Amino acid sequence: GAGVSQSPRYKVAKRGQDVALRCDPISGHVSLFWYQQALGQGPEFLTYFQNEAQLDKSGLPSDRFFAERPEGSVSTLKIQRTQQEDSAVYLCASSLDPSKGAEEQYFGPGTRLTVT
Amino acid sequence: QKEVEQNSGPLSVPEGAIASLNCTYSDRGSQSFFWYRQYSGKSPELIMSIYSNGDKEDGRFTAQLNKASQYVSLLIRDSQPSDSATYLCAVNIPYSGAGSYQLTFGKGTKLSVIP
After folding, report:
1. Which chain A residues are within 8 Å of B102, Cβ to Cβ?
2. B43-88 pLDDT, tens per residue?
3. CA dihedral for B103, A24, A106, B10, sign (positive or negative)
4. Chain B residues within 8 angstroms (CB to CB) of chain A
5. What distance lies between CA A70 and its chain's CA centroid?
6. Type and span of the H or E element at B110
7. Which residues of A touch B104 (CB under 8 A)?
């Protein structure tokens, strides 16, 4: 079946521009996660949704970062007034329902954001 | 500080040998452990999950968990050049408050399998 999809795959933004990154999770997956991965590092947690509820946003680095999942399926990560330090790969992952033991997270291909 | 530690490598093994990848974690309350494989320029791919002490085998892969020592490992038998990748250890470190299933990742170990 279809996996997690993300768009765009690559995004170049000028410093100060706003960007929106989209994630389409595996059908039926209740939980959705956003991670940020810098070169040579492991992914770092940004935020987590259970259906449409954003249960944990402790990893968002600043108030310029905002995520939503209004209908409990597709999610958008928005970064306002992008800065060079925002350059990274943004990964989306979904899991079936970790509250019921189905914790395995499956990652999408990622969006590589470059801020110039 | 909630941490997951891995040797960054590179770890080089000859084709056909056993590759052993190790990971330690800081929080004794951790319950769920995962190994991901990441090829250069690609996203992480789930290989194994393990939740109980002991060994779990899946094909050429064996995950080992020792909660008392806060240690989890991945063994790859009969290593192939196609196994050359970075292997990420990920741990669900529990936080207080509303349940969160975020994963904390190590920096990864780069494995090279030499033909």
Report:
1. 33, 45, 48, 56, 59
2. 999 999 999 999 999 999 999 999 999 999 999 999 999 999 999 9
3. negative
4. 4, 32, 34, 36, 42-46, 49, 88, 90, 92, 95, 98-108
5. 14
6. strand B109-114
7. 45
